[in-house]
Amino acid sequence: NANFYRVSPNYNYSYFNSNHFQWDLQWKKQNIAELGAYLTFKQFKASANLFLLDNVVIFGSDYNPVQLEEFSRVVQFNIYAPFRYKGFGLTTNLSLQNSTSDSIPVPLFAAKSSIFYIFDIFKRKLKLQLGVDVMYNTTYFANAYSPALYSFYFQDKQKVGNFWYIDANATIRISRLYFFARIGNVLSPFQNYNMFTTPNYPMKDFLISIGLNWRFHD
Questions:
Q1: % helix / strand / coil in the chain, to the nearest 5?
Q2: Less packed terminus of the chain by CB within 10 Å, N or C?
Q3: Which is more confidently placed, 76 or 214?
Q4: pLDDT tens string 108-144
């Protein structure tokens, strides 16, 4: 799979007018080439992608737009691996990636996995599902967010990542009635609440939520 795009930067890079920022700028067109290879075997999927970027426009650390003069290359390898055996289920997404430009930051490794088991109880009249969702990525200088710009901008002061984010959940189904309970960010009390995916925006702390869902027939 191969694609090539020659596109203008988004409108807010060229024109912006607010109480805090004003500019009216002209840019060269961005050149983006994408090369990809894909492998599928039953439900298993693997992919490799190469992105070649030239004249890319970003918001710099001073909040102003800037066109990168350097040629950038981003490489990604992705694996999607679901597995089911009787009541047991496991779905895993893995990503390995690299950017040659510090101005286009990506984590070297990222993973997301869902593990669950479904119990059939009382002659299958009641279903109980217990599971956990796990996320992790290595540290990197993620772009920061500016509410005044409604956009992300480059920063190289604060790294984020290198923590486990785990949600535990349980669902009970009786006919059309669903009862669910969720414990979010299970490990936050043990990680000093220092969990960020975006600089200065902490992830949600430990929480417990419960609820009911009743499906009516039309």
A1: 5, 60, 35
A2: C
A3: 76
A4: 999 999 999 999 888 778 899 999 999 999 999 999 9
The pair of structure tokens assigned to 151 is 């956009």
- Best CA proximity match to 153, nearest among 65, 66, 64, 59: 59
Q: What tokens appear for 3 in the block? A: 């694609």
pLDDT above 60 (res 218): no
Closest CA to 139 of 195, 185, 187: 195
Helices (H) and strands (E) in the chain, counts: 1, 18
Contact 20, 148 (CB under 8 A): yes
Residue 156 · residue 102 · CB < 8 Å: yes
Q: Which fold has domain 2-214?
A: Maltoporin; Chain A (2.40.170)
Rounded Cα distance, 166 and 184, in Å: 7
CA R_g for the chain: 22
Question: Token pair for residue 134?
Answer: 């796990």
What's the predicted TM-score (pTM) here? 0.87
Instruction: Specify the residue for token string 């409108």.
Output: 11
